[in-house]
């Protein structure tokens, strides 16, 4: 038999918590001493250990009471339900992580807290990213939309993302450059190299995405690409083509 003090020391559960478990009928002592001190037997200890195990697995105290009342045959079902809850929470946290990274990268790229962009990024992650790309289904097949949707911060290293942001940031700060200049050409070549890397050298997918980009609609689906960046890349590409025809 264990006194509440010994049980607390044996299980590392505070006396206050054991008092509460007793109060709500979750783990009650089997007997008491003549002086009224609570005594827990081995079965009580086993019940407490079950409570601690279920609590570690994420069950609420109300859920634990219900689980302990059902037969062991239904325990597996309860554990499976908890597994599903954990998986959904993992997905929610992963999306939250991506949204926070997106906001962090936007502040780094913009050089300030741009609330319209931040709200747009949050809204993007609150919906299925595939839905945001549906407006470009004239240029992208469903399979291509799925592929582009999967090209997010989860599948790209931090170094890849930073290189991508740097290339676009460099273009943004040099929009004034002459499209015929070597500096402008170098920026576009760097952008193209990063784009090919992101798209695993899938030229067809990259080509279709570029067509969609040139018809960019309002929204954040292709952030941080915007019309200014796209027009710069187009103007440099046209200038390069004219140079090639002239030579």
User: Order of strands across the widest beta sheet?
Assistant: 1-3-2
* Strand/helix succession: EHHEEHHHHHHHHHH
Q: Class by helix and strand content?
A: mainly alpha
Main beta sheet: strand number and arrangement? 3 strands, antiparallel
How many E-type strands? 3
Q: Residue ranges: pLDDT <50 for 5 or more in a row?
A: none
Give the overall silhouette: elongated
Strand content: under 5%
Query: Helix fraction?
Result: 55-70%
Radius of gyration: 30 Å
Average predicted confidence as pLDDT: 85
End-to-end Cα distance, whole Å, is: 97 Å
Contiguous helical run count: 12
Keywords:
247 residues, mainly alpha, three-stranded antiparallel beta sheet
What does this protein structure show overall?
With 247 residues, the protein is mainly α. It is built from twelve helices and three strands; from the N terminus they run E-H-H-E-E-H-H-H-H-H-H-H-H-H-H. The protein has helices at residues 4-11, 15-23, 42-56, 61-69, 75-110, 115-126, 129-133, 142-150, 158-172, 182-198, 203-214, 227-246; strands at residues 2-3, 31-32, 38-40. It has a three-stranded antiparallel beta sheet. A hairpin with a 5-residue loop joins strand 2 and strand 3. Helix 3 (42-56) packs across helix 4 (61-69), helix 5 runs antiparallel to helix 6 (115-126) and helix 9 (158-172) runs antiparallel to helix 10. The relative contact order is 0.07. The mean pLDDT is 85.
Care to give the gist of this entry?
The chain is mostly helical and 247 residues long. The protein has helices at 4-11, 15-23, 42-56, 61-69, 75-110, 115-126, 129-133, 142-150, 158-172, 182-198, 203-214, 227-246, and strands at 2-3, 31-32, 38-40.
């Amino acid at each position: 038999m264990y006194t509440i003090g010994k049980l607390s020391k044996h299980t590392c559960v505070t006396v206050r918590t054991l008092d509460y478990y007793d109060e709500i009928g979750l783990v009650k002592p089997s007997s008491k001493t003549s002086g009224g001190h609570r005594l827990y037997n081995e079965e009580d200890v086993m019940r407490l250990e079950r409570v601690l195990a279920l609590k570690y697995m994420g069950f609420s105290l109300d859920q634990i009471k219900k689980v302990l009342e059902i037969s062991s045959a239904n325990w597996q079902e309860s554990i499976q339900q908890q597994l599903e809850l954990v998986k959904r929470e993992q997905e929610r946290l992963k999306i939250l992580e991506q949204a926070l990274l997106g906001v962090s990268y936007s502040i780094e790229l913009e050089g300030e807290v741009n609330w319209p962009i931040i709200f747009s990024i949050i809204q993007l992650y609150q919906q299925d990213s595939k839905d945001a790309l549906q407006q470009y289904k004239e240029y992208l097949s469903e399979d291509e939309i799925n592929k582009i949707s999967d090209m997010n911060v989860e599948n790209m290293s931090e170094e890849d993302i930073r290189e991508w942001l740097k290339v676009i940031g460099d273009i943004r700060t040099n929009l004034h450059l002459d499209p015929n200049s070597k500096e402008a050409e170098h920026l576009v070549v760097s952008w193209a190299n990063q784009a090919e890397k992101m798209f695993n050298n899938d030229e067809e997918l990259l080509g279709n995405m570029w067509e969609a980009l040139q018809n960019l609609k309002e929204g954040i689906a292709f952030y941080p690409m915007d019309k200014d960046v796209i027009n710069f890349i187009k103007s440099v590409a046209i200038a390069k083509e004219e140079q090639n025809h002239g030579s």
